Recover the amino acids of this structure.
């Protein structure tokens, strides 16, 4: 398990892989993938142009730093420069392929000095591309796309950004417009299939991703392949889930909670039938106002938004993800009727079996690797879903706040969860943050395992 809920690179659906590649700093991100024979740059250069994400450490204000020196004036680009920039992008891709072939040859010969030299050339190429081509492409793509939504190069950039922002219905619409015009783009097929999967159209996703598998050698292995593997199972899961939801709608008696956040209101319906103790815990914390003022400290696009940690109230970003209510509750994801993760699912965070407390997460899309696995005693307890305000949940970013959490309705009985002692020991209550807290605080207790989503 990795700290702060970062999904394991080998797990489904690998949302962090897109995060690592779709960045304006491709050097660091692609190197993290182990270079993969330098081939990953093709993905980074061809379609991954989304801006960098704010990290969890940036959720709280940092200490003031001296203003940076003014950068030299940059060239002002216009739409007329677009064809030349696209041609230069293709030139960089060709140079990348050449480096890739040289690197693979050096690997076969086990020529370590040659490989190290090629890595340096690779990094220099990335930096050159980022400053001379990527930045103006990012700037101009929305304008070019607005004029001609069938321009494949502009569409790939705009659609990648939309995908990174969890705007799946828009991605589907935009990709179909490009494909219907007769233009072809293998990466866009992958984004289309992934977005169909995200919006629960698993039959269409399977068809699209199967077509992308043979055509897209760059984006599909990172993003599309995990979704394609899950399509068969999720067709069955979704059919069963729809039956359950229809019965719940007919009964119309499940508890509901309203989260008023800085991105807008989110209404949650809680699965008391399948996860009664987790729901009792959540409602008791809401009624005790334990969620009011807390931040979403971990947000990974195409994956989830995590919140509910009281440590986000203090001035130390290093302890975010380690807080809780002072006790833990047992997991309820091992029963045969345990719910699975879909788009907008509300699920319990934990640092291992039976270590959940107050932290929860809201999924951006179905996450197969988090589903209950009774045989292996792993998974996360899904205890609710977003029934209103999904667009606000998908728009959450690190540092967004739960201003108020309120129980809208509940069944006529006491909500008193069964709890266990926290095996990590009692945690001191976080000190209230000031308007301008320092970047860290002295006397921070030793780090304890952070709540995670990958088992």
């Amino acid at each position: 398990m990795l700290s702060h809920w970062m999904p394991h690179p080998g797990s489904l659906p690998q949302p962090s892989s897109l995060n690592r590649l779709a960045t304006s700093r491709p050097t660091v991100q692609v190197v993290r993938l182990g270079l993969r024979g330098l081939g990953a740059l093709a993905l980074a250069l061809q379609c991954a142009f989304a801006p960098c994400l704010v990290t969890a450490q940036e959720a709280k204000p940092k200490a003031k730093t001296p203003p940076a020196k003014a950068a030299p004036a940059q060239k002002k680009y216009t739409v007329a420069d677009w064809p030349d920039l696209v041609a230069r992008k293709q030139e960089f891709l060709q140079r990348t392929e050449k480096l890739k072939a040289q690197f693979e040859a050096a690997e076969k010969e086990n020529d370590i000095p040659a490989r190290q030299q090629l890595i340096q050339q690779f990094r220099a190429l990335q930096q050159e591309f980022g400053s001379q081509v990527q930045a103006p492409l990012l700037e101009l793509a929305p304008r070019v796309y607005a004029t001609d939504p069938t321009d494949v190069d502009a569409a790939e950039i705009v659609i990648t950004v939309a995908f990174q922002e969890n705007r799946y219905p828009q991605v589907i619409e935009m990709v179909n417009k490009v494909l219907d015009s007769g233009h072809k783009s293998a990466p866009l097929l992958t984004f289309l299939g992934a977005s169909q999967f995200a919006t629960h159209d698993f039959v269409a996703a399977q068809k699209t991703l199967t077509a992308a598998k043979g055509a897209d050698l760059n984006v599909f292995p990172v993003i599309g392949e995990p979704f394609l593997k899950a399509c068969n199972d999720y067709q069955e899961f979704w059919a069963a889930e729809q039956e359950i939801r229809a019965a719940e709608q007919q009964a119309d008696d499940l508890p509901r909670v309203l989260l008023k956040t800085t991105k807008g209101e989110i209404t949650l319906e809680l699965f008391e039938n399948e996860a009664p103790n987790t729901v009792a815990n959540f409602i008791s914390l809401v009624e005790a106002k334990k969620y009011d003022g807390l931040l979403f400290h971990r947000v990974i696009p195409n994956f989830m938004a995590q919140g509910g940690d009281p440590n986000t109230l203090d001035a130390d970003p290093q302890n975010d993800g380690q807080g809780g209510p002072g006790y833990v509750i047992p997991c309820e994801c091992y029963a045969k009727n345990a719910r699975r993760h879909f788009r907008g699912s509300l699920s319990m965070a934990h640092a291992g079996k039976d270590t959940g407390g107050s932290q929860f997460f809201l999924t951006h899309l179905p996450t197969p690797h988090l589903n209950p696995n009774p045989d292996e005693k792993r998974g996360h307890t899904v205890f609710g879903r977003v029934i209103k305000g999904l667009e606000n949940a998908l728009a959450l970013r690190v540092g967004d706040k739960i201003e108020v959490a309120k129980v809208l309705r509940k069944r006529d009985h006491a909500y008193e969860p069964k709890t266990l002692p926290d095996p990590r020991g009692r945690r001191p209550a976080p000190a209230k943050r000031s308007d301008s807290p320092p970047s860290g605080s002295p006397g921070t207790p030793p780090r304890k395992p952070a709540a995670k989503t990958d088992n």
